[in-house]
Design goal:
Creatine Amidinohydrolase, Chain A, domain 1; four-stranded mixed β-sheet; alpha+beta; binds zinc ion; 2 domains; six-stranded mixed β-sheet; 20 strands; 10 helices; 388 residues; Creatine Amidinohydrolase
Length: 388
């Protein structure tokens, strides 16, 4: 079959800019300081590579960023000096690059940017205890812990970020449209996964966004099943959860297919999950609590008698990470905001029988949401090809 690279033909993506993000971090840090009654930190040490990428455009595999009140410094090793200078300049990052070509030089560079300043904030979720102790040995400044300063700021996406996730979703849609009909030929779960991942790349993706899930028949009862050599057969539901990566940004979608004549209970599960998912999409809007979207989905499933079989949360934020803030789960009272990108993915799972999940990726807007996933989700019933 000829693969037409439609997404690559769709033209270039808008440039990503990080201008102003360092100022946002300083403001957020100040807000946290106001709320705290302990030592006030005016600098933030960033270790998480996604956070560093979001703040500077740097995509190397090693680096530490310090956001001071008056400057931002990226410390990296000799492999990434030229790349860092190029990427920071392209993204408009107001940051200086300090390169250490040996372990001793790196330590010296680190010590230089950590002295002499006031208290330094670090996010304990970004480093190990050993790294924390190492930093403590490199500075006389007090270290204070703060959580999720940059992750919080990453929640609302710019149009350039959304464009990447839209492109990633389009790659996934195109791949699934080509691969779904192949399921009539009795492939294994692994065959389907391999075709999807190959075709996403052909359509312009940098790669899969996460380990693609293809779960057929009873395997579908496990929400995060890993593809096996199980053959897709008559009477199965097939859950396919697949996403693509484009320029660092993820997409995420799930569709469930019916193969031939299925148990009426599976068909009912599909109908209920679809109704729940549509209700969830209709509930998404800026100002609505994420927990309320979860409740809308959960209520439809519970009313149909499948409540205990909806065994995960309704959704999650997506961006530079496949799972990030905001969380669309029970009791999340924080309102969704314009520009946040979240999934809506209710599911029902029954041991021994199978599972159904339907998932779309959406951008929150003032009036509702912009759905990035375009794959059809009506009852996707495939007939197996006759054997001979
Ligand atoms: Zn998914
Ligand atoms: Zn998801």
């Amino acid at each position: 079959m000829t693969v037409v690279d439609r997404t690559a033909l769709a033209g270039g993506l808008p440039a990503l800019s990080v201008v102003g993000r360092d100022a946002d971090v300083r403001r957020e840090l100040a807000r946290r300081n106001d709320a705290a009654d302990g030592v006030v930190a005016r600098s933030l040490l960033v270790f998480d590579l996604n956070n560093i990428r979001w703040l500077t455009g740097f995509t190397g595999s090693a680096g530490t960023l310090v956001v001071h009140p008056d400057e931002m410094v990226l410390i990296t090793d000799g492999r990434y000096g030229e790349q860092a200078r190029h990427q920071l300049s392209a993204a408009g990052a107001a940051a200086r690059v300090a390169v250490g070509t040996t372990a001793a030089a790196l330590r010296e560079a680190m010590e230089a940017v950590l002295q002499p300043i006031g208290a330094i904030a670090v996010d304990p979720s970004e480093i190990t205890h050993a790294q924390f102790e190492n930093i403590r040995s490199q500075t006389s400044a007090p270290l204070v812990t703060v959580s999720g300063v940059v992750q919080h700021l990453r929640r609302c996406k710019t149009p350039a970020e959304v464009a990447r996730m839209r492109r990633a979703s389009a790659c996934t849609d195109a791949a699934l449209a080509e691969v779904a009909p192949m399921m009539t030929g009795r492939p294994t779960e692994r065959d389907v996964r391999d075709e999807l991942e190959y075709r996403m790349r052909r359509h312009g993706a940098d790669g899969p966004s996460y380990d693609t899930i293809v779960a057929t028949g009873p395997n579908g009862a496990r929400p995060h099943h890993r593809p096996t050599s199980t053959v897709i057969e008559e009477g199965h539901l097939v859950v396919i959860d697949v996403g693509a990566l484009v320029d660092g940004y993820h997409s995420d979608m799930t569709r469930t297919y019916l193969i031939g004549e299925v148990d009426p209970e599976l068909r009912r599960m599909h109908d209920v999950v679809r109704e729940s998912q549509l209700a969830g999409l209709a509930a998404v809007r800026a100002g609505v609590a994420a927990g309320d979207v979860d409740k809308v989905c959960r209520d439809v499933i519970a009313d149909a008698g499948f409540g205990p079989e909806f065994i995960h949360s309704t959704g999650h934020g997506v961006g530079l990470q496949i799972h990030e803030q905001p969380w669309v789960r029970t009791a999340m009272t924080e309102p969704l905001q314009c520009g946040e990108v979240v999934t809506v993915e209710p599911g029902v799972y029954r041991e021994g029988l199978g599972g159904v999940r339907i998932e779309d990726l959406v951008v929150v807007t003032d009036t509702g949401c912009d759905i990035l996933t375009e794959s059809p989700k009506d009852l996707s019933c495939l007939q197996l090809a006759p054997t001979n």
